[in-house]
Amino acid sequence: MAQPSDFRAQAVRCRAEAEAATLHNVRERCLRAEAAWLEMAQRHERVASARAARELRPGIAGGDPLQEPA
């Protein structure tokens, strides 16, 4: 699972488990897990966007973070 779509699919499963849960603590655990999966998807997307933007900057060919811009 390394794609945001996978993380979001897991979040959907957690939401379904929460809705089916009869115990309050199980429901809360599932909702926390859902929130965590959604956060992982968002974080993955932010990192991918930042990486793409960094690689497009002039002077950072190959995405070397230690190379100074020209």
Question: In summary, what is this structure?
Answer:
This protein is mainly α. The protein is 71% helix and 0% strand.
Give the overall form: rod-shaped
Mean pLDDT: 87
Structural class: mainly alpha
Amino- and carboxy-terminal Cα gap: 38 Å
Radius of gyration, whole Å: 18 Å
Count up the helices: 2
- Uncertain runs are none
Task: Explain what the structure shows.
With 70 residues, this protein is mainly alpha-helical. It has helices at residues 4-20, 24-56. 71% of the residues lie in helices and 0% in strands. It has one domain.
Search tags:
70 residues, mainly alpha, 2 helices
Question: What is the secondary structure topology, with strand pairs?
Answer:
Blueprint: H1 4-20, H2 24-56
Helix pairs in contact: 1-2
